[in-house]
Please model this.
Amino acid sequence: MQYRVVVVDDDPLILKRAWTMLSEAGLKVAVLKSGSRLFDYLQSNERPDLILLDISMPQMDGFETLQLLRKQETPGQEIPVIFLTGNEEADAEIKGLSYGAMDFIRKPLIANILVLRVTHAIELVRLQRDLASEVAKKTKENEQLFFHVVSSLASAIDAKDTYTNGHSNRVADYAKEIARRSGYDKTMQNAIYMMGLLHDVGKIGVPDSVINKPARLTDEEFEQIKKHTLVGGRILENIREMPRLSAGARWHHEKFGGGGYPDGLRGEAIPEEARIIAVADAYDAMSSNRSYRKALPQETVRAEIAKGKGSQFDPRFAEIMLAMIDEDKDYAMREIVPDP
Model:
């Protein structure tokens, strides 16, 4: 592969010497007399593998040129830059490195040193990017595998309740949308989605007969139900790669005004993720068929969410849920039961 190098220097003799040395070593070289010409070149030519940039130039010096270049580049895709300098001062090197230069080559140029430093720099950057690409690829593959495992587990938990279908997926969807509207970034939205999928994982330890009981639960049975938050929290806290994953499972039944379970937390002592999931979970519970009742009308669900602001729900997230309900004119945001 023929490497492409751009040399920027206001001294024609330096440009000629650099062009000769690098061309004879098999590199493809372009020579330019100023920083402004470099930007014109980059707009109309193929991206170079490396830029050799003189520091002392009129109008726009090397430092100014590099600063402007970095502002225009995509993070992670910066063109490597090596400064050409006759300046022996350490301050110049510190300044250049802080602006993002890879290295310095001192004038007068020596052919073997120039070629080796240029080719090594290009090869190092390519190796770094290849490794970063491979790591990103493997990370994405692992995330997809983890997501499939989590989705399968959520489906298995939902299957314990014969009266609900896709509850965990809907809660995850609603929670992610609340997070999006709250201003969370994509990474946090996805994390909250994952928490929503797994918020009921602790029900794996609750007998099916209790979960599907059509009549009112006894106090003992309700205590069994309540334990799913503790069980879920313990299961998920063992996933060290995602230390906050357990928050939704353990605390989604806490109440903003106090009186919830399992720990009786209130207000901002409840993790935000759990406060979001609490609203999403309650909404889906009311808008879905349950063993003891049919899905509630939309206006009833809305009234209950509004009633719970500040007592059961964080007012901020409850308001977002109410806005989502108001936008849902056809009541499509609920469990859809197919016709028999």
